[in-house]
Each structure stands twice: as structure tokens, then as C-alpha cells.
Design brief:
9 helices, elongated, disordered C terminus
Length: 289
Amino acid sequence: MNVLLLAWKVKLPPMMEIITAEQLMEYLGDYILDAKPKEISEIQRLNYEQNMSDAMAILHKLQTGLDVNVKFTGVRVFEYTPECIVFDLLDIPLYHGWLVDPQIADIVKAVGNCSYNQLVEKIISCKQSDNSELVSEGFVAEQFLNNTATQLTYHGLCELTSAVQEGELCVFFRNNHFSTMTKYKDYLMALSLQQEQQSQEINWEEIPEGISDLELAKKLQEEEDRRASQYYQEQEQAAAAQVQQVQGAASPASGRQSGSSERKRKEPREKEKEKEKEKEKEKNSCVIL
């Protein structure tokens, strides 16, 4: 909605200070209906009306958040879903920066053309496979997701800077959130939502926040190293816990074995005592002739 307001495609009453989510949905719905192309073929009209119907059905999700599924091959590549239709109908470009670096061959092979959801399914499938090559691919893919959990890579930022046009108003998807973004003097800027209540100015923040490419690369690398280190520590802790469980399960068994051996040692002694008692009885018994 912020993109439409900044582009003057949707206008609110000048004296309106507070607007409800329901009112925003009404404004969006009216805009979609008014934006319907006039001079189009019959097939294009039917296709547009179907897309409009699909978009209207999920428009209410804007209040809680749309579910989009990124692909790691391009900044504008998403799995085509009804949620993406909304952006098409509103003529709002949608971007993300979660890309695989094409120079890292093993990650390129492991991720392929998968969307995020498909990659998660692939990782689960590879872990259960008997094929060592598939297991290795699954491990590489999982490491990629763990190491880039911020959903922005250095390669992705470079592609974003190249793809977004100067002055273009668009939406940036990252960390499962949507931000209003533009490009100003070759810098990517995101609309700040932390506005002071009394301020009438629109504030923008640089993406990323005021650091050079070299500093960003270093920052992302440090973050990836930290996540990789944390992942290996968790694996080691899990392995150590498993060993302790195995050892704990073996201890009672050994205790039972020692207990049974002690009983076995006791049994001959008891038999010897019984024999000695019988001999004493024979000595003390009287024989009647």
C-alpha cells in the first residue's frame, strides 16, 4: 500500500489521520477494479478477470502477511502463486536478495532451480537416501540455508543494485517481511517504519545500513562463519549426548551381569553348608537296633 501511496496511485482523504485495515483493503480492491485494462482481447480479458478473482480471494491476507516462495536464481524469481498475482495486478515489482553465487559450483548443484519449499523437501529426502552423493548434496543445501538465514547474500545484493532502476518504487522481501524500497543515487533505500509520531517527514534507510560493499562482504562472511560454527557445535553436542545415552543403557546391563555372577558364586557355598548340616545330623542321630 505504501508503494501505491508514494506513487500517487491511491489517494487518501487529506484530513484522514487514522485508517483501519478494513478501509485499506477497500482502497486496494477499488484500485484493482479501476486498473483493469480497457483495450485488450477477449482471452486477455478472461485471464485478467481470473487473476483478479484469485487476488481478491487472498487480499485479506495482506493484514497478516503473504506467503511467497523465493527461488535462488534471480532477484525477481518467485514460485508463481496467487500471492504473487496481487503484485502483478497492482503493477508493483517484487524483489529479494537470497541468491546462490554461481561461482560456488557445489552449492549451485545442490540447490539447482529449487524454490525454498522444494529445497527443504529435497534436504529431507537426501538425508534419508542410501546414495552418498545425494546425502552430500543434502548436507551442502542445508549448510547454504543455515549460513544465509538472513535471506540476503553478497551476490544477491550486487544483483539487486543492478536490477532496481533509479527512482523505482518496489517491494523488497527479506526475513519473511515486505519492505518498500527504492533506489536513490545508486543506493538501495528502504522505507523506515519507525516514524516519530509528531514527524511528517518520510525517512529512508540504506540497504544495508550505511556500509560499503567490502564491509558487507566481511559482515556476511562473519555471519556465515558464526552460523557454521554454531551448526557444528550443535552436531557435536548431539553426538556426545547420543554416546552418553548408549553408555547409560549399557551400565544397567553390566550391573545385572555382575549381580547374576555373584548369585552364581553364592549358590555353591549354600550347597556346601547344606551338606555340612546333613553330616552333623547323621553324627547326632541314634540308631535303634
